[in-house]
Amino acid sequence: MSRTDAPRPPAPHPAERARTIATLGGRATLAPAAGHTERVVPVLHHVHPDGSVSTLLPADHELVGAAWSAPRGELAAMLELADTAPVPLREPVRGLLWITGWLRALSEPEARTLAVEVASVRPDPRLLDLGHGATLLRLIPASLVIADAEGTHPVTLDAFSQATPDPFAEHEAGWLRHLELSHTDVVGSLARHLPDDLRGGHVRPLGLDRFGLRLRVEAIDADHDVRLAFSRPVSSATELSSELRRLVGCPFLASQR
């Protein structure tokens, strides 16, 4: 839950946040159109830069048959991507990305071409099951919506395709786990930036991006997400280290390179 009694600190644009969630490739569920109420967890999924999604499903799944039998070989569907915190929290989901569009059946040559495209950026042995008990479908996007602590926002396909993931997304999970397990003193120092009414809660590292650090305060009544803004957006590990030291309260160390 975000606090609304003060101006919001700077944060990444919704399209950038959406692209980051897509790149992290968290848990996905596929929700078919009316008449197919069961939510499906794909064997594998991959979001392409244009917002389309490759989904690998068991060949005998009813959704595969439904796509093939649908008019034009495509079925209305929505993919939900969950952005899960890398540290154990009682409410672990940090954000959701919904991609709604048309789930399209692919011919064997189309599926193999798409699998090669996916493997070029995300090698995964499960792609070898294509044609051997698994089928690849493609979700053609019509709309995207992101919901997280910053709010709920629609994202245009153009904005999504032009955005880039946060520069620290690849390393964020490892850094936050290290902070949680080995530097509880640092987390305690960061708590000095919290509003007085939140300082009695359990403070946990929640997220990190080029605009700042996010903390989760697990209080008795509810969970509260607080963003601690950097003095400026950062793009390198050196700049990030300086800003983190400044937040902790080490101005001398923050000036060192």
Strand and helix layout:
Blueprint: H1 14-24, E1 28-32, E2 44-47, E3 53-58, H2 62-69, E4 74-84, E5 93-104, H3 108-121, E6 134-148, E7 151-155, H4 157-162, H5 169-182, H6 184-190, E8 202-209, E9 212-218, E10 223-229, H7 237-248, H8 251-254
Helix pairs in contact: 5-6
Compact summary:
The protein is 30% helix and 31% strand. A hairpin with a 4-residue loop joins strand 9 and strand 10.
Description:
The chain has 257 residues and is an alpha+beta fold. It folds into two domains: 14-162, Electron Transport, Fmn-binding Protein, Chain A (Pnp Oxidase, Chain A, Roll), CATH 2.30.110.10; 169-254, Alpha-Beta Barrel (Split barrel-like). The protein has eight helices and ten strands. Strands 1, 2, 3, 4, 5, 6 and 7 form a seven-stranded antiparallel beta sheet that branches. Strands 8-9-10 form a three-stranded antiparallel beta sheet. Helix 5 packs across helix 6 (184-190). The longest helix is centred in the middle third of the chain and has 14 residues, at 108-121. The chain is elongated. Mean pLDDT is 90; it is low at 251-257.
How many alpha or pi helices? 8
Radius of gyration in whole Å, from Cα?
21 Å
Q: What is the domain tally?
A: 2
Low-confidence stretches: 251-257
- CATH domain topology of the largest domain: Pnp Oxidase, Chain A
User: From the coordinates shown, what is the CATH architecture of the largest domain?
Assistant: Roll
Q: List the helices and strands in order.
A: HEEEHEEHEEHHHEEEHH
Task: Identify the CATH class of the largest domain.
Answer: Mainly Beta
